[in-house]
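Troubleshooting: if your tokenizer reports a length mismatch, compare your output against this known-good record of 128 residues.
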Amino acid sequence: MITILPAPDHVLAIALSGTIEPADIERVAADVEDRLSRHEKVSILADITAFDDMTFAAAWKDARYSFGKLWELRRFPKEAIIVEKGWLDRVARLFAPVVPFVEIRTFPPAEREAALAWAADIEGGPDT
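Known-good structure output:
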């Protein structure tokens, strides 16, 4: 399941838990599109501390949507990932330097507010 969390309008804050289904991806993609219609830039905060699994259909839907956004990466300046230390943290840190135009940073669960503040602080503001 993906829960959309309270955050400034130019930040999509989500918490992943349990198993992610295609409907979860569709709901989040619709939310992203809605925010992009109001802002030039949208940051992401993803809490993956309770994430367990993703169905193949959800992974496929997520990959298709994400690949469709490759030419718009500049519109997603920051991604804060809340994760416990471990393999997911290492994977996130490994990919952070290779994703162009997106600054990716991991935060421990105790720093959730700092993660949100960091993601919300877009250079020049969300509408530039």
